[in-house]
Amino acid sequence: MRRVERTPQAEVDLLQIWVYLAERSLPAANKLLERLESTLEMLATHPAMGESIDRIAQGLRRFSVGNYVLVYRPLENGIRLLRVFHGARDSGAIIEGIAD
């Protein structure tokens, strides 16, 4: 089975997104998290599906899920999720600040 590792920052990102949405609609928050989790499982199996952003850091990839962006690195048997953020945010600053 492929694995999905999460950095501490990615865990914080997911929690903050869930809390923000849950304050407005618990079902919507849960549905988004389920969608993100299923996408992460898919990316763990097919890591090349995401767009390469090697210009920022070697091996870095991103994949959009609705309004959210997943930033990850492929691993030998899965992926490491580095950040999750809303696409309306300054993605350049977020991605350039990634340290895994």
List keywords for this structure.
alpha+beta, 3 helices, five-stranded mixed beta sheet, 100 residues
Characterization of the model:
With 100 residues, the protein is an alpha+beta fold. It has one domain: YaeB-like fold. The protein has helices spanning 8-22, 26-45, 91-96, and strands at residues 3-6, 51-52, 61-65, 68-75, 78-86. The chain has a five-stranded mixed β-sheet. The radius of gyration is 13 Å and the shape is globular. The mean pLDDT is 90.
β content, as a range? 25-35%
| Global Rg | 13 Å
Stretches where pLDDT falls below 50 for ≥5 residues?
none
Domains (count): 1
Q: For the report, how would you describe the main beta sheet? A: 5 strands, mixed
> For the largest beta sheet, what order do the strands appear in spatially?
1-5-4-3-2
Q: Which whole number gives the mean pLDDT?
A: 90
The general outline is globular
* CATH homolog superfamily: RelE-like
* SSE string, helices as H and strands as E: EHHEEEEH
CATH-level-2 architecture: 2-Layer Sandwich
The number of E-state strands comes to 5
Task: Using the coordinates shown, work out and report the CATH topology.
Answer: YaeB-like fold
Provide the CATH top-level class: Alpha Beta
Which structural category fits the helices and strands? alpha+beta
Cα(first) to Cα(last) distance is 23 Å
Number of helices: 3
